[in-house]
Specification:
heterodimer, A: about 900 residues, B: about 250 residues, Alpha-Beta Plaits, elongated, Epigenetic_reg_gene_expr (chain B), RBD_domain_sf (chain B), RRM domain-containing protein (chain B), RNA binding (chain B)
């Protein structure tokens, strides 16, 4: 009975219910449960306890169910420890902590066990290089209890080095590899089946839409900061949700194109794309606003656009026009860049960098820019909706200036984070250049139109080809990007340059394509039309501010509308691929990358955090941008770095993949977003706080809080070896070190935490208890690391740098001095005469052998000598420690 | 019934302040023991911050631990052959031993083989320490007496968490002006560790010397007494007494 009670006392709760099965449907399957305070999910790796075994088995839960008689069962797919199959291993070398996954069919593959046999969770990481396997980060690897990349065939008793099959032992391969933190998009490209993609996309969209509401709140909150934006937002309160949806759609579309690179999908999604395209344009507008507001602003703009689209097609067209304007502006920029041809790539990069750099310093400028952008965006929206806003624009700036500003804003939007580009943009925006730009824009428009024309019009067939190429390029980029992010933080940093290069390349290609397209297109009348359109657009730009003739504007509108439609379609298509393409084809490469990555991030985040807030998404995007900016080399922006570092640190802390860290960063960003204006500051603050863990040089020297190390609970269930035993083995291995100057009130557990936080090493530590001769101000701790290399690394690090503890002392590490077994050391002072050896027996029988010696004995005299010796000893130890204190406290 | 509970609660309420006062005093004393070389300012800061950060649960845990420390005596200069049972029997003649815990020594400080013996009350512990310090007390061996003193917090390797909110550490920036100081401190620490182990060796040598010396003198004494004994046993005394005309009883 008692046992039953004990079991009952262990917390148990079913969580996710699944279907029923069995003969009479009496078996209830489950997807997860809580047992003894730990949540287990299907396909988790667990320790399985078996009586009499010192080390538990390791297995993967493949089925969880409850029988009719209420007995809880799990089906476990086994891992093999190398020692378990040493007979068949032969000369095969196994890594430390390596285990092998059972495969094939037969005895030993799986077992059905009572659920209560689960002894705890086991952190098993798959290090297979298989492309389908999300690669683990360093932190994850360090945190892993076991790793595996090979399987052991229980039929043939052979070791298989690869896991090519779709299924192993009846388990789908995706359940065997590491879990994607959240079914991230990044992983999607790897999967061939489009259906899954679609599903994921749908899922994403849903999440996005759900998340939209919070964003609205954010938007409303954020509105106060930006007056213009406020007005716009106020006008379009409903917009945010739509925008969010559109963004999600765009993301989905983007992912699709990336994945499939197929025109078919584009065609299929044409309708959606229209919306998305409009959204894309909105996004462009939004991006600037985002820049301004950081995260929250984006959704509103998008929402507005979306709303417009949703409400009326014509309106959508109108709306599109403004978006087109922005696009045109962007094109103009790109055109300018194109005119600079050779320089375009570098210039883009530079501009990006500048933007990045400027982001920090230019927070103020950003604000101004943001305001400009806001103005622009409102203007656009206004244009779409009402021209009064245009008036505002006209009032605000000269036409050219406005154009420039718009261009800048667009650029900024493109850059999203980089307001600094204004100057360059301005330079580019010079009148002459403008014309060129206009031409280029015209070309771009042509391209754009071509793209749409593919859908609806036959005019531009060539663009299609170009588009797919672009799409492909983007897809590749995205893949690269996604791959990069999946790697560690370092990878992220590295990825930034790669992305840059890729982007640059892509941009170059795009530019070339554009040029060629333009040339090709120039032949048809469309070019002229485009040019006209451009001219109109320009007029609009100028007109808008001046608002001279609405009619003129309108007339262009008609043309523009067509174009806009085309553009919208194109945008949709492009958005479908990378929604950002639509925004700025050339620059869009980056944007696309950003979007793609952000999309993946979002997906991941959604999967992980279930936080589907648009705000988060936008935050993620921004975060990414920040990262990119950082990566791009905007070293001047500490905030960005901090963010990245934070992310890294988060990842390391939680052992989570970058995805997880991204999620964190997102959340952080969200938090900051609420205080739009304060974002930078708050971010920096947060960054500073979290930087302690980060690896960047400056961050390294920040204070860090030593909390409980992760996974502490996991190791808890596992009975540790007796300390003496593990000390001995660690000493023999050379992985034991002695720490000096430990803070007196640290406990052994806290030392372990400290080692984890300072060196990211798991260890076993013990504070050395003081004896009378111990230095009263030097506390020591023995630390047993996992490997000799780790011990040497820690020692070197401690030697080179100064780890200051909370008691203000530097931690000192020395190799563990030789350990002398207790029984073998000599003890002086106990003399025996043959006759007295009788006592030996008494002692063994634990009979009291103690006595006070009487003053009239030789023994007493000798005892007095020992007393003298003890006093002397006490004295000299006191002396030496006194001297030490004097030395330590003496002024230098 | 209700009245009874009310009365009890009131009583509890009135008692609690004094409880608190009583509780903080030993903590202060023990903390001062734990960090004797801190200067007063640091100590006060530390002490008060500890008080402020106390959490009820950990505070209680710590309190019980400190009480345990209070009634524990530290014994050293004991032989490495001594077992827990031997210690228990040896000290049971003073008072009931609750628990015996050996302080592990891993390195060269074998001579400082020591144990923590927990008695039932702090008073008993104090008395035992006094007794053993006054006259040489042998446990499972002669003539080296054991040494006893009150236990200190840092002698326990299983001490509970200090009531501290967070441990904040940092890697010192090499450009920081105190970096060199920290480096020096590190070197000093290492030096001191070496010095301590050297002193330990010296002490071992001293002990060995004393041991050998005592062994020699013990042997000489033993030989002397053996001689006397044998002289008595084989009738030498009687014969000598008869020769010198004195009675055997004089010896």
């Amino acid at each position: 009975m008692e046992k039953v009670d004990e079991d009952a006392n262990l917390e148990f709760k079913w969580l996710i219910k699944k279907g029923r099965g069995g003969k009479n449907k009496e078996v209830q399957f489950y997807g997860s449960f809580i047992y003894d305070g730990v949540e287990y999910v299907l396909y988790d790796c667990v320790y399985m306890y078996k009586e009499g075994l010192r080390e538990p088995y390791i297995g993967k839960l493949t089925k969880i169910w409850e029988n009719a008689d209420k007995s809880k069962k799990v089906k476990v797919h086994w891992f093999f420890r190398p020692e378990e199959i040493s007979k068949w291993l032969g000369d095969t070398k196994t890594l430390e902590n390596e285990i092998l996954f059972a495969s094939g069919e037969g005895v030993g593959l799986t077992n059905i066990s009572p659920l209560e046999a689960i002894a705890g969770k086991c952190n098993v990481v798959c290090v297979s290089k298989d492309s389908r396997n999300p690669q683990p980060s360093d932190e994850e690897l360090k945190a892993a209890d076991f790793i595996f990349y090979r399987t052991f065939d229980v039929e043939s008793c052979t070791i298989l080095d690869n896991m090519d099959e779709e299924k192993i032992g009846g388990i789908e391969i995706k359940h065997i590899f590491n879990r994607r933190e959240d079914e991230s998009i990044s992983t999607l490209p790897e999967t061939n089946t489009t259906s899954t993609y679609k599903k994921e996309e749908n899922h994403n969209t849903i999440t996005l839409t759900t998340s939209s509401e919070p964003k609205q709140l954010l938007l409303t909150k954020t509105l106060p900061n930006t007056n213009n934006l406020k007005d716009d937002d106020a006008q379009d309160k409903n917009i945010p949700i739509l925008a969010a949806e559109t963004t999600s759609v765009a993301l989905l579309e983007k992912t699709n194109p990336k994945i499939d690179e197929k025109a078919d999908k584009d065609a299929m999604e044409a309708n959606k794309r229209k919306k998305s395209s409009t959204t894309g344009s909105d996004k462009l507008h939004e991006q600037p606003s985002k820049k301004m507001k950081l995260d929250d602003k984006n959704p509103p703009k998008e929402k507005q656009v979306e709303v417009v689209e949703v409400d009326r097609d014509s309106v959508g067209l109108k709306d599109v026009m403004p978006s087109k304007k922005s696009k045109v502006d962007n094109n103009v920029r790109t055109g300018g860049k194109n005119s600079d041809i050779g320089k375009t790539d570098t210039s883009v990069v530079k501009t990006d960098k500048d933007n990045l750099k400027s982001s920090k310093e230019k927070d103020e400028t950003k604000v101004s820019k943001v305001s400009k952008e806001r103005k622009k965006t409102p203007m656009e929206s206004d244009k779409l909706d009402d021209r009064p806003l245009k008036k505002m624009k006209s009032k605000l700036v000269a036409n050219e200036k406005q154009k420039q500003v718009e261009v800048e804003g667009e650029k900024i939007e493109k850059l999203t984070d980089l307001p600094s580009k204004k100057s360059k943009v301005e330079d580019k925006s010079a009148p002459n250049e403008k014309q060129k730009h206009v031409d280029v824009v015209g070309e771009k428009i042509e391209k754009l139109t071509d793209l749409p024309s593919k859908k609806s019009k036959d005019e531009v067939k060539s663009p299609r080809n170009e588009k797919p190429k672009q799409v492909e390029v983007e897809g590749e980029k995205i893949e690269k990007l996604t791959d990069l992010p999946s790697k560690k933080s370092k990878v992220e940093d590295k990825s930034a340059p790669n992305e840059k290069q890729k982007q640059v390349e892509v941009e170059g290609e795009k530019i070339e394509k554009l040029k060629s397209k333009v040339e090709d297109k120039s032949a048809p009348n469309e070019k002229q039309k485009h040019v006209d359109v451009v001219g109109e657009k320009i007029e609009k730009l100028t007109d808008l501010p001046s608002k001279k003739s609405k009619d003129e504007v309108k007339s262009p509108r008609n043309e523009k509308q067509k174009q806009v439609e085309v553009v919208g379609e194109k945008i949709e298509k492009s958005t479908g691929l990378p929604s950002k393409k639509s925004k700025d084809e050339v620059k869009s490469a980056r944007n696309v990358n950003n979007l793609g990555t952000s999309g993946t991030q979002e997906e991941k985040a959604n999967g992980n955090n279930n936080n589907n807030n648009k705000g988060k998404i936008s935050d993620e995007l921004e975060g990414r941008r920040l990262k990119k900016t950082k990566a791009e080399g905007s070293f001047k922006i500490p905030d960005n770095k901090k963010n990245s570092s934070i992310i890294n640190s988060n990842g390391s802390n939680g052992k989570n993949l970058l995805v997880a860290s991204e999620g964190k960063s997102k959340s952080i960003v969200v938090g900051t977003n609420n205080n739009i204006n304060k974002e930078n500051q708050s971010e920096s603050n947060e960054n500073k706080k979290k930087l302690s863990m980060s690896q960047s040089p400056k961050d390294m020297y920040k204070e860090f809080v030593v909390g409980p190390k992760p996974n502490a609970d996991e190791s808890g269930w596992f009975e540790r070896l007796p300390w003496e035993q593990s000390l001995k083995s660690a000493y023999d291995q050379g992985s034991a070190i002695l720490l000096h100057n430990v803070d007196p009130d640290y406990t052994s557990g806290e030392v372990e935490d400290l080692v984890w936080h300072a060196f990211t090493e798991n260890c076993e530590a013990k504070i050395l208890p003081h004896s009378v001769i111990s230095s009263p101000h030097c506390y020591q701790a023995l630390v047993l690391l996992k490997t000799k290399e780790a011990a040497q690394r820690v020692l070197a690090k401690l030697d080179e740098d100064c780890l200051m503890l909370s008691n203000g002392r530097p931690l000192v590490g020395t190799p563990c001095p030789p350990i002398i077994p207790r029984k073998t050391c000599k003890f002086f002072g106990h003399l025996s005469i043959d006759r007295i050896k009788i006592n030996q027996r008494e002692m063994e029988e634990a009979v009291s052998t103690s006595h006070f010696s009487q003053p009239n004995t030789i023994e007493y005299d000798m005892a007095m000598e020992w007393f003298l010796m003890q006093s002397k000893s006490k004295k000299w130890w006191e002396m030496i420690y006194k001297e030490k204190i004097r030395v330590c406290t003496a002024p230098p | 019934m209700n009245d009874y509970f009310d009365a009890e609660q009131k009583a509890l309420r009135t008692v609690s302040p004094s409880l608190f006062r009583r509780r903080t005093l030993p903590a202060a004393r023990l903390l001062s023991l734990a960090i004797p070389q801190w200067n007063l300012h640091n100590f006060l800061f530390f002490y008060y911050s500890q008080i402020n950060l106390m959490e009820p649960s950990s505070e209680e845990e710590y309190e019980t631990f400190i009480e345990k420390v209070e009634r524990t005596i530290y014994l050293d200069n004991i032989s490495n052959q001594v077992t827990e049972a031997v210690l228990k029997t040896a000290l049971d003649q003073f008072a009931t031993v609750k628990n015996v815990q050996f302080i592990p020594t891993y390195f060269n400080s074998c001579t400082i083989y020591a144990a923590l013996v927990e008695m039932e009350t702090a008073k008993q512990a104090q008395e035992i320490v006094k007794e053993i310090s006054d006259s040489p007390f042998m446990i499972s061996g002669m003539p080296r007496p054991v040494r006893a003193q009150k236990a200190k917090i840092e002698m326990f390797d299983d001490r509970p968490k200090m009531r501290r909110e967070k441990i904040v550490c940092y890697w010192m920036d090499p450009s920081h002006p105190n970096f060199d100081v920290a480096k020096k401190l590190k070197n000093l620490t290492k030096k001191h560790a070496v010095e301590a182990s050297f002193l330990m060796e010296k002490q071992m040598e001293e002990e060995e010397k004393l041991h050998n010396q005592q062994e020699v003198s013990l042997k000489a004494n033993f030989k002397k007494y053996e001689l006397i004994d044998s002289a008595q046993g084989d009738g030498t005394f009687r014969r000598l007494g008869a020769r010198y005309g004195s009675s055997y009883n004089d010896f």
